[in-house]
Amino acid sequence: MSKAVVLLSGGLDSATMLAIARDEGFEPCAITFRYGQRHAIEIEAARRVAKSMNVTEHLEVEFDLRSMGGSALTSSMEVPKGRSAAQMQEGIPVTYVPARNTIFLSFALGYAESLGANHIFVGVNALDYAGYPDCRPDYIRAFECMARLATRSAMEGDEPLALHTPLIELTKAEIIRRGLKLGVDYSLTCSCYDPNVASEACGNCDACTLRLEGFLANDVTDPIKYQRPAASS
Q1: pLDDT over 90 percentage in the chain
Q2: CA-to-CA distance for 168 and 124, rounded, in angstroms?
Q3: Which of 5, 23, 190, 193 has the fewest beta carbons under 10 Å from its own?
Q4: pLDDT of residue 87
Q5: Which string of b and e fits 69-80 if b means at least 16 CB within 10 Å?
Q6: Contact residues for 12 (Cβ-Cβ < 8 A; gap 6+)
Q7: What is residue 39's predicted lDDT score, i.e. its pLDDT?
């Protein structure tokens, strides 16, 4: 089995992507980031997901983006709640963390080189997160091109690095449907931008709204706990 580095946040998308990498015959090596985000709950979720899928190599990298600010996820800035689908598509949301995916992918690239792996899986999505500039297909192609120039394998003529984005053109409902078929236990995941200390999702932020709509479209109840009755489940 070829090794593949999988960016694992502990959310619904990354858990599905981990299952896809494994289903496609790769040995997934997970990498999770503690970057100064508002809540460490997602780190715990990533550990649960990795354990449930028998991931033997799970690297946790810690650095702090709070000093840079610019995002509701790394500051005390208020997380938007109750937005409609149309509002989510308007401009770049305050939950965007400046250059986050570039930073994450750079770490993943280094990890892949150290493992001798030529495959990286990242759960970006261009449909549900149209406002995030580092989730667009053009960005992914550009990073892959750069990575193929910047690594030892590029100089030595080995297999070029491949950046896999199996979720990039799927709706949230399609992602959940794919994950359910692969046996993903979504009760282990955390998608919320603003969970409480009891690890209960708020049910109103953009991530919760999209997640709930995805489960509703599959006629399945979201198995995680919410701070209030989930209106869409």
Answers
A1: 77
A2: 6
A3: 23
A4: 86
A5: eebbbbbeeebb
A6: 172, 175, 176, 179, 186, 189, 191, 211, 214
A7: 80
* Number of CB atoms found within 10 A of residue 145's CB: 12
Tell me the three-class secondary structure of 9-33, residue by residue. CCCHHHHHHHHHHHHCCCEEEEEEE
Q: Residue 63 corresponds to which tokens in the numbers above?
A: 């650095």
Q: What is the per-residue DSSP string for 135-156?
A: GSHHHHHHHHHHHHHHSHHHHH
- Residue 201 phi, psi (nearest 5): -70, 150
Segment 93-111, tens digit of pLDDT: 899 999 999 999 999 999 9
**Domain presence at residue 18:** yes
The confidence band for 195, taking pLDDT boundaries of 50, 70 and 90, is very high
What does DSSP assign to residue 226? B
Our count of domains for the chain comes to: 1
Domain enclosing residue 162, as ranges:
3-192
> What does the pLDDT average to over 164-184?
97
> DSSP for 170-209?
--HHHHHHHHHHTT--GGG----SS--TT--B-S-BHHHH
In a domain? residue 130? yes
> In CATH, what number is assigned to the domain containing residue 172?
3.40.50.620
Summarised one tens digit per residue, pLDDT across range 129-144 is 557 889 999 999 999 9
CB burial readout 115-131, b (16+ within 10 A) else e: eebbbbbbbbbbbbbbe
